[in-house]
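Batch 3, record 17
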Amino acid sequence: MNSKKHKSISYAKWGYAFIAPFFIVYTLCSLVPLFMTFYNSFFENYMDGLKQIGPNFVGLDNYISLFTVSNNGTIDILVYTSNTIIMWLMGAIPQIVFALLLAVIFTSARMRIKGQQFFKTVIYMPNLIMASAFSMLFFTLFSNVGPINQIIQAMGGEVFMFFNNEWSARTIIAFINFLMWFGNTTILLMAGIMGIDQSLFEAASIDGANSRQVFFKITLPLLMPIIVYVLITALIGGLQMFDVPQIISAGLGTPNRTTMTLVMYLNRFIGTSKNYGMAGAVSLVLFVITGLLSIIVFKSLIPSDKKKKKGGK
Amino acid sequence: MANNLEDYKIHTSKFSLITSRVFSYIFLAFVTFLSLFPFYLMIINSTRSNAQLQAGFEILPKEHFIDNLITAWNDTSIFFLPQGLLNSFIVAACTCLLGTYFSALTAYGICVYDFKGKNLAHKFIILVMMIPTQVSALGFVQIVNNLNLTNTYWPLIIPAIAAPATYFYMKQYIDSTLPLEIVEAARVDGSNEFRTFNTICMPILRPAMAVQMIFAFVASWNNFFTPALILDKKEIITLPIMLSIVRSRINSQAGDMGEVYMIILLAIIPVVIVYLFLSRFIIKGVTLGAVKG
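Prediction for the assembled complex:
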């Protein structure tokens, strides 16, 4: 104990040296920009045609205009938040259901599914694909002259304009997100199921429980912490939804802004209209939402560290 | 009586095992179809000429693969595809090397040394792990503008040095695999601390670092949001930005669809090839990185 303390004193400076690059870069590239972003939200600062307006201090005006009814007759940020959450839910619900089913199938000791490696490789593959390329692909597949409409026509149907209908456009976006993420969720849930004490399953089967009972009475309750973790991280990812709807709708959120997400809105303020004041306000809203969600994840990660330290070597 | 009951039980459980197996394989086949069908369509369509694509859907490949490849490769009207592949590769390679090395270094520093604020540093990184990059994008773009770094790769590469998720993964891996006795032994032998990390500990961490490099490479290769705010010059832009240009071009005019499918294919293919070789490690890496304990 004593000798350890002695060593820790003499080597402490190396610890700082090792973590210094990370913290310096994080501060300069994320922390300072974060505060600059918030600072911007209190200023009027945009381009009106070719004329630069501001920056003038306006207090909370940007937040007020963010939450007042716009020219469109709606409170835009609420519309875009609900778009984001609707499209996220449309993808996330099937994602969790499919992932749970697949995880149970893969881990079932009774069924001994063959070709597991193949199936896992295949279902994880969409996750690695460039979201913009995937979206571009689906855009061409479902376009008015694309293969899907050609099939519909060949079967005697009429051309269906998938991207002019609110729900078909949203469904395609949600489907791409689902396809990209269900493999990842499956693998996480599988790890969770394999972490459950096997003797519980044996005991249940000796007591004559059928597979449905085992799933609802043992697997699901014990898996709940991991499902919650997966859901919250998925929600944080979902709030950042950008690539897919941006490419599918060419940045416009068509039809009628029903596929416009929060981050697309932010991107318009930073990139297109250069309205930095409003961009700052949108960023802060996004930060507060993800911050609250992150704290839940943070709390679920830190206690497990402590447990490990106590139980470990 | 008891025997009959046993027989009945075994019989039904066998029956239910077979049905659940059949159901499982049908479900797996369906999921496999879902996952592979887009790739199949993309590959088939990249072998067909624009006229063939307009004519209707077909199941078998045609003979225009090379034609489409040549068109896509040589088209310089709005961007230059080979340049885009190279640009994306440069950014992704630098990002994954820097990010993995420095994040591993940080994790090692926190695992191996005892110093004041070490727990705070760890908690801080985990707390910021979930904050999306988009939230600080505005300030970041302003800094980049002020330093005249727009249309350069520095703003995409340098921030990679601080990768909280990579740190978290490496921290867990080091905690469970790196014996501290090795570090002590190296000290006794008079090795400098940085040399100990680079020559003795890094080889032990190689499997985990390789997985993180793959993830970092893919994430950078696919990254769209930040590059789109920083790059807009034809010779500098990366692949996702090129794809967004292709998309907006389709809105205004009907282009050569064979070429469009070929561009999508070329943007995806490098990652798919790497994945097919390394899928085993990648899938293992997903579990190790994200699930606690």
